[in-house]
Amino acid sequence: MTDACETAILTYLASSPEAKIEDTLTWAADECKPPLDHLAVVGSVKSLLVDAYVSASDITNSFYTLSKEGQSILADGSQEIRVLVALVESGDGLTMPELQEKVGKAVCKIGMGNCMKNKWAKKDGAKLVPQIALNEVADTVQAELKALSDADGIADGMDDKAIAGLKRRKLVNLITRKSFCVTRGASYAPTRVKKAADLTKEMLDSGAWKTTPFKEYNFLTLGEKVGGGYLHPLLKVRAEFRKILMQMGFDEMPTNKWVESSFWNFDTLFQPQSHPARDAHDTFFIKGPGSTVSVPEDYYERVKTMHESGGAGSIGYRYDFKREEAFKNLLRTHTTAISSQMLYKLANQKGGFTPQRYFSIDRVFRNETMDATHLCEFHQVEGMVADYDLSLGDLIGTIETFFNKIGITQLRFKPAFNPYTEPSMEIFGYHPDLKQWTEIGNSGMFRPEMLAPMGLPENVRVIAWGLSLERPTMIKYRIKNIRDLFGHKVDMARTRTAPVCRYDATE
To answer: Residue 205: enclosing H or E segment and its boundaries?
Structure first.
């Protein structure tokens, strides 16, 4: 269609140098055989303007069309007149249900209001009674619509107030139609030769580039905006935390396995099989496959013995350790499941134990009630150090070093209980915006009952600490509701506009 429109325009202008298309709208409909689509003609004119084949001036025509309600009034009269007619014909007025039945609910709703506004009718008890005779009123709305329709929508001879009233009642729609007056341009030719936009290998090989017309290069035009991926605020904070931990000498643990067995997630951490956290209302268990295939059998027996009868100075939990419970699959509730596997490998590697620092930042899952600060899945930041003769002072010093590097200098530690650490501490930091102390993490020293079955030397101690990734991210980006940060309600624009995460370390 575009090529046909271009050909028709150039052919029409070829008749004489003074040839002119007065109005593309009427020209496309009346002078072209067959008639051309005006939108396609406009597109062709704009395309020809780029290469100066034609010159054009804008023509703007505005007119009104009647809405569906306006057409109904033109045919049957306005709602207020139809209501008045019904009231007059009734003699002593009508109740609301009677009026609705006679003229319809839609007509009654609009017409009754206008009748009362014009003081053509009034309420008398339950009835609406007429206050004026039919011959004393005129249907001005219908007359105005008829005058507009007869003038093909041109409102030049009509009162502005009348037009405003029709528009307010949404009886008419203003249509603005643009067209062009077209004449020959500076580079006019009867046939258009399209200019090449690219210099191709074929042109170079054949020599066609010497005679091929090329489009002029516009150095002022901006290139198309380059789209691309954007890091989510969580990933920005994660990258910064990862860099800080690596600077502190930590190695990252492989945490890309979200499904774990209860053995690694709970049992190796000396968490009893009757612990409430292992119930279905706290943990997401996997239906298929419901059980893991295998675990290190000798290690399993040592863990079982520790739970049933104790060891390393402990009496254990004194219950029957169940294999089917230990083999249940679940979505890991913490990345400490990976920490226990790394410590087991460390204890049983060739050459024996060597001190190590490990960290992980990855997703964990818990069956929690969702609210502004809790989700069923979140990211856990975890760090641990395994070395000889570590103490609680080493743990506090490591924690203070990390938090100082992310700008949190005011810390407090509160005694706490965890099944697999003793002593255990909750970490509190002072929030300068909230002007209060806020819990930001948990920490402790892994219990001997957890470390002994792994085969670690007796004087090896493991200090560990963890926090969520979401809470510091919400503080950093001033986000009040966690669902605005992570999940299906996230505003994608925030991902594009969130600034780079940078923490200023304090000495």
So the answer is: helix 201-206
